Amino acid sequence: MTTDTRNQTLARYIKTRRLSRQLDVRTAAEQAGIDATYWWKLEAGQYESPSPKYLQRIAEVLDAPLNDLYALAGYKLPNGDLPSFTPYLRSRYHDLPPEAVADLERYFDLLRNYYDIPADQPVFPPKPREKKSTSRPSADAVNAKDHPWRAS
Length: 152
Known about the structure:
Elements: H1 5-20, H2 25-32, H3 36-43, H4 52-62, H5 66-73, H6 85-92, H7 98-114, H8 139-142
Helix pairs in contact: 2-3, 2-4, 5-6
């Protein structure tokens, strides 16, 4: 068993998701049908290549995209699919400092909020939205000095 950056990133992701669902390790492992010791070791980053079968069960319990877990574990995704943004950054650019990943996450959250893009849709390319009573920013407003990422 080895511990590398990818294993630690996967470990943090799984632990964070588990805690956000207010599950202890034993309960989460029981719901996934796996041994609690395996889950503990996974959250400690001790598995070089976690079992894809177990990752699938864990994804279901944590309500996490399976592509995210596969990418963080270092597995190639089927059909060239990509994980969601944060796991993609952490799996693709695992040598980025955590502060850089956090800055990018904040930037994409800013874009998502500014353009009212739902969390289940990618920021780029944006999918068409249903028409709402409010209008979208004009091209002039988008390029204005008060644009969110141009603000000082």
